[in-house]
Amino acid sequence: MKRFGLLLLMLLAFPTPALAAEEDSSATFLDFLDWVDTAFSEAVAAIKTVFFFQVGGGVPIIVAWLILGGIYFTLRMGFVNLRGFKHAIQVLLGKYQDKSGVGEEGEGEVSPFQAVSTALSATVGLGSIAGSAIAIQLGGPGAVVWMSLAGFLGMSSKFVECTLGQKYRMVRTDGTIAGGPMYYLSQGLSEMGVPWLGKSLAVLFALLCVGASFGAGNMFQANQSYAAVANVVPYLADRSWLYGFAIALLVGVVIVGGISRIGAVTSNLVPVVVALYIVGCLWIILSNYAEIPIVLTTMLKQAFSAEAIEGGFIGVLVQGIRRAAFSNGAGIGSAAIAHSATRNKEPVREGMVASIEPLIDTIIICNLTGMVVVITGVSEISAASGANGIELTAAAFNTVIGWFPVVLAIAVVLFAFSNIIAWSYYGEQAWTYLFGAPSTLAFKALFVIFVFIGTVVNLGAVLDFSDMMLLGMAVPNLLGCFLLSGKVAADLKTYMSKLKLEKMPVPQANSTASDEKSTGRTEN
């Protein structure tokens, strides 16, 4: 706590742009910031020419890469996103967990439900709220249909990467878990005889993951949540530092406790936040119940028009790619880090649980947001008002009850907070892989500082750069998943056979854990 107190004093002493502008010596510093911003913008532009290079039909290559992954994994795994759905719900509800509270498998730090909550914390966020509105602006109401298709395919991608995360996780000597793409890339590809490729991809992924945790998973969330709060609390309009200090303090308290505390917080916070937002959306939709058939018909008809198809792909770009970590993260690999820490001996089972996440954050939440925007008619006046993204969603909430934007602001803050603490764990695991466990305190200190910075500076090109790192994570991750998909398919076949023959044990209240050897690997 003393170390954390010193860190907070450092945060308070950090000069905001407003304070720096009052000093005569600030001119040189501001010129330097302008130079950095320009350099960042040019670098980001260069990266965009690669990641957003358009292939046939004007589809950015990175979008094609993720969609290809979703299609391939859906077919390769025999539509596991459909046939494994019922079983995933049973696992999530605790059917295969020891009723005494100890997981059936013993080893692990969190329950499957806590892992889902943590993963959803890092995906359900501002992208889910604003992404549908942006897609509708660009391509019409039919764009939401194509976003839903992307979410459906993403369920299979999530299954593969989270199964691999559990399969190749490491159990440290102190009982904590190390897992994620860094480990299944290095170990899995080493088993296939290409250790140099696995190690290279693992290091690349870890570097990108650390950068994404500081940027899109941290500063962006802090910055945008402050904007939402300042909109309804005028007192904070010129006091970004106060909000930054408060949220940095809360984040610091939570992340010091590691994945166990993060899982405990998110498992209680995420259901409440999701329920709050869904209730708000349903209230608006049911308040305009007479328009529901018209809206659904319009969305389906426009989904197959040239304008809607183009807008749908752009919506996938914005919602599923540029804001990948805030939408469903399928193909990015981040969720595999959370799911590797669960108390589970069956990797396939964990993959099935993970596949539910795109259903919740893209198919359900994004469709509800899309219906709210369309049914209230705010999408038709957005061009004239200049509203976009979160502002458009807030305008839709405002059409029913004047204080509904306050509800939205609360949801945004909670979404952002849960997102930040989940990404702190992802970044920490990637940092540990690169620099070792003893250095994690340095990461946590940096992470808390970046929370504060995110609320007091204009991110500019830093946001775009963070997005590029998120997109970059999909390159090594999906390449490894393609190469390792045969192992996953074989494990899935075995698991489904056991399930069909009812050889999958269901623990009783006083049952003991199975003596079967854990799939987790012990770290030497």
Topology:
Layout (H helix, E strand, L loop, with lengths): L1 H12 L3 H4 L5 H26 L2 E2 L3 E2 H16 L3 H4 L1 H8 L19 H10 L4 H14 L3 H25 L2 E2 L5 E2 L2 H11 L3 H38 L7 H16 L2 H30 L4 H11 L3 H17 L11 H6 L7 H8 L1 H20 L6 H4 L4 H9 L5 H32 L4 H17 L4 H40 L20 E2 L2
Parallel strand pairs: 3-5
Antiparallel strand pairs: 1-2, 3-4
Helix pairs in contact: 1-12, 1-22, 3-23, 4-9, 4-23, 6-17, 7-13, 7-21, 8-15, 8-18, 8-20, 9-15, 9-17, 9-18, 9-23, 10-11, 10-23, 11-21, 11-22, 11-23, 12-21, 12-22, 13-18, 13-21, 20-21, 21-22
Overview of this protein structure:
The protein is mostly helical. The protein has a single domain (55-501), classed as Amino acid/polyamine transporter I. It is 72% helix and 2% strand. The protein has helices spanning 2-13, 17-20, 26-51, 61-76, 80-83, 85-92, 112-121, 126-139, 143-167, 181-191, 195-232, 240-255, 258-287, 292-302, 306-322, 334-339, 347-354, 356-375, 382-385, 390-398, 404-435, 440-456, 461-500; strands at residues 54-55, 59-60, 170-171, 177-178, 521-522. Strands 4-3-5 form a 3-stranded mixed sheet, with no helix packed on it. The chain has a two-stranded antiparallel ribbon with strand order 1-2. Helix 11 (195-232) crosses helix 23. It is globular and about 60 Å long.
Keywords:
two-stranded antiparallel sheet, 3-stranded mixed β-sheet, single chain, 72% helix, 23 helices, Amino acid/polyamine transporter I
Mean pLDDT across the residues is 74
Radius of gyration: 23 Å
The termini sit apart by: 31 Å
Number of helices: 23
The major sheet is characterized as: 3 strands, mixed
SSE string, helix = H, strand = E?
HHHEEHHHHHHEEHHHHHHHHHHHHHHE
**Multimer state:** single chain
> What's the number of extended β-strand segments?
5
Helix content: over 70%
